[in-house]
## 1
Amino acid sequence: MWKTRVTELLGIDVPIIGGALQWLSRAPLVAAVSNAGGLGVLASATFSSPEELRREIRTVREMTDRPFAVNINLFPTMRPLPIEEVIHVVHEEGVRVLETSGRSPEPYMERLKEGDTILMHKCARVRDAMKAERLGVDIVTVVGCECGGHPSAEEVSTFVLLPKTVDSVKIPVIAGGGIADGRGFMAALCLGAEGVVMGTRLLATEECPIHDAFKRAVVEADISSTVLLLRSQGAPMRALRNRAALEILEMEAKGASLEELLPKLSGLRGKAAYERGDVDGGVFPCGQAAGLVKEVLPVRELFRRILQEAEEIEKRLR
């Protein structure tokens, strides 16, 4: 029933893609998403050596025989490893699906598309999706301003961005931002998407390797529990409204420079907070979809409920 060009290209059962969550999209969560019929995505940006990345890819393979992808964040400050090294490892390990994000993949297209690689590119503007298609990307993902992490400075919602993108490209489009249940999944398909990506909803799953305090924070969040940081720098970031985020907003209001803000945004600071369960101890990327999350579930059960709800909607619409 849920067969689309995305499921056919990726070899998956249901058109649900896991978000590349910093520090969290490691083998347990990636394998859980793939085993549930979707596409798990391993975030490569937090590995400090090629050997560490290689071991994690092999661990994913030990946990699932289903397709999975590796995300390569092209933004300069988001990767401890040179992009060329990451590409070399993923190709050497035979990873067939790659996802790029953060910047245009244009300088690396020849290397990225070696062999029979399927390349997805994640972006937040229609013009970036159109450029990705011209470059030869196979699938484009667009995320509206509801998403956790980095939406576009244009701040266009998924409900508007998605159909405009679908009208502007011929390759399959995956939708992200604000999707947490069967209603969002079905709405995205109705707007022309051939798959969805979920990040925030996966934070509150049993397999997500984050402290239970953060999972509770997502379950207890309302739709207004997130804020957009770094608007002053023209690079907005949606995060949970916690003490660390409010400190940054206060600094921005006083005209702080990016250099002054960066220590508060340190990924290592966030990682330490994740590990000790300090919800206020760092910036916690989180989307508005947190307000729709009601409980922590295993990924397989979450997907079952999403598809069941979508089927019920489809029957009602008929």
## 2
Amino acid sequence: MDRVAAEVRKAVLSGALQPGRKFSIAELSAQLGVSHIPVREALSRLEAQGLIVLRPGRSAMVSPLDRDELRAIFRLRQQLEPDLAARSCAFLTDADFERAERLLHDYIDGSDDPDHRWTLHRDLHLVYLQPAATEWDIRILVQLWDASDRYTRIVFDPYGAGAEDSHKREMAHRGLFAAARSGSPAEMRRAVHEHLTDNEAACLSGITWSAPGTQGVNVLEDSV
């Protein structure tokens, strides 16, 4: 089930499975070489992340991109992340800053694998939040990040971005690092709030919002 979920999630986030695309669970099972049960369980997990909509019978659809959903995701992130970052400030260690520097370097200049680069990005943000986070905070954060990935990866694709966009992304994350280094909870809260606000605005303006598609069912092909 984990492999199936990972394969379908990768296809959705990469755009190989486009928003609004309908597909057959039976055909997906055949393409992945597994029975219907693990496929349906994997799709149920992805439905909880907001990526898939299970339909009556044995079919599913990739969740359409939705402005209201995007706004709701960022509203919840704004309620959680700036506060966690502010409360974590006092507990960040030299080892945390060294790890953040390595992750920032590898995120900006390192891996050519986009999936690995997004993992680095998530790990970088977690450095700033984890000291004050509870287990439930992390669970909720992961769910919100999973839901927002499909929007942010469209806009901040490392291969689609030009030099100017890449420079802006680097400066934004260096600003977060500097705010964390300042040791000021107020400064860190402000920096994370502004970072989320800018990302939400970029997604709202950078995504082509369209009606759901209804193309055929053989949607995985060579993509997963």
## 3
Amino acid sequence: MAIKHSRGEAKEIAEAAGESTWAFSTGMIHSFKTRTVYQAHVVRFVRWARSIHQVKNLAQLDPRAEALATEWVQAQLAEGKSPYTLQAERAALRLFFGNRTLAQDVAIPRRTREHITRSRGPAAHDRHIQLANWQPLIRFLQATGLRRNELRALRDQDIIRDDLEYLDEIVVKVRNGKGGKARTVPVLPGREADVRAVLSGSDPEALVFSRIPKHLDVHNYRREYAQALYQHYAPGRGLPPAQGRLKPRDYDRDTAQRVSWALGHNRIDVVIRHYLR
């Protein structure tokens, strides 16, 4: 674990030293979310190895890592797992075994926007939540685009209001976002009242949301925020086309970068692919 150590800074140092940073990795984990995801993938693999190949301890597993990891990834590919999931599973195993070329003979399909299904259309968990009961939270998400973990940690004092009554500016301070990075999130213009509505007004240390339902599709509202903010910053341009190969003239690069920073990302391609299209 390398919490509070910047992967981006490590990459810049490597580039300055003339090293290739294609598929760059520090060999460490820089966020708790990544650890949770990778750990789940590794545990599933270990249980599979124990069940199918009777591997009962790590001393037996390590010498067979290449063969078993290759067989495992091939099995996931045959099950129809998305390229994004396959890449994450293989990356988790490579970090676990300390081998960056593990299972490299498995040809994983190229990741494309069409393979992205998260928060696009109805999902099974939608049936397990009454959205009408969570409207203040939903409106806040639409106004700020915060991640679930950022919502959990948000306190009254992190919502900064302007003391001048004739100004309606308001921002949200994220103290510990993805990768341990802090950022200032602009509230979507016109939605300031939805942010002020959730404040307790009494204790600056109070959590803004004491409960966040597990079936709430937070990422869906994060996409809504990103698209609305993009259209606010670039009025009249419209969103990048959802289909076909994207051309430079199809989107405003500076606006996409501003939205990227608001979401806590640096790479424009991630925001365009996952949020704007």
## 4
Amino acid sequence: MKQTRLAYAALVCGILCIGCSALFVKFAGLPGTVSAFYRLLFAAPPLLVAWFWTGKTLPARHDLLLMSAGGALFAIDLVLWNSGLLLTSAATATLLANNAPIWVGLGALFVFRERLAPRFWLGLALSLLGMAFIVGAGGWRDLRFNQGDLLCIGASMFYAAYLLTTQKARVANDTLTFMTVSVVVGALLLLLINLCLGFPLAGFSARSWWALVGLGLISHLVGWLAINYALGHLKASAVSVSLLGQAVVTALLSIPFLGETLGVAQSVGGLLVLSGIYLVNSRK
């Protein structure tokens, strides 16, 4: 029971941290694949130091492959999401990318044979309805499935696959080992992608560098350490819906830091998302 409460506390901490990622990306003002690469690159050294310092050893071959797959899946998710965002509206991209809980639920049901209670589907429906309110009605009116939309749908699938892979890899392995392997693999893959695309990886302003450091250390290192710890003790189906709460965090932080306003629709959407999260994680 105490371990479960700690897992939920870690999940809340993780949601708060990754909710800051949109602000860091905005402040950096760099191509999405570049900020994604530095997000993982800056998170890697502390993980490697802690991993060697604690005397961890590489896991069994099967688990190592699962962790590497998780890192690759997350890196591809970042690439598809950022690429799709350049080709479609931000509202549409946000709406489509948050279909991940649907794929997680279906994957848990058909691949892992998990029995999902009716409250999961009701909570998921409430949360997705809340997301629709947050991105605004224009997101529905302008919903046209162009190349960018398809990339964002693909991103949600890779994100869901990452969550499901994490749940399996964390069964017999600690959070630090999983994070270290997955982040290093993801960073190497993103480095290769940036080199192939010819994006510059240096010459940025001090503001951009500080934003990238925050993105790597706060949003990814602390945020995903907490979330991956939670995934080791909670079902991926419940965690994936809970992660929708990051939209609420981002919306609230955007008011003081980006000068954005929170309208009635966004407020109602936030309440629906939180209600859905509570329903999914309730035991009765």
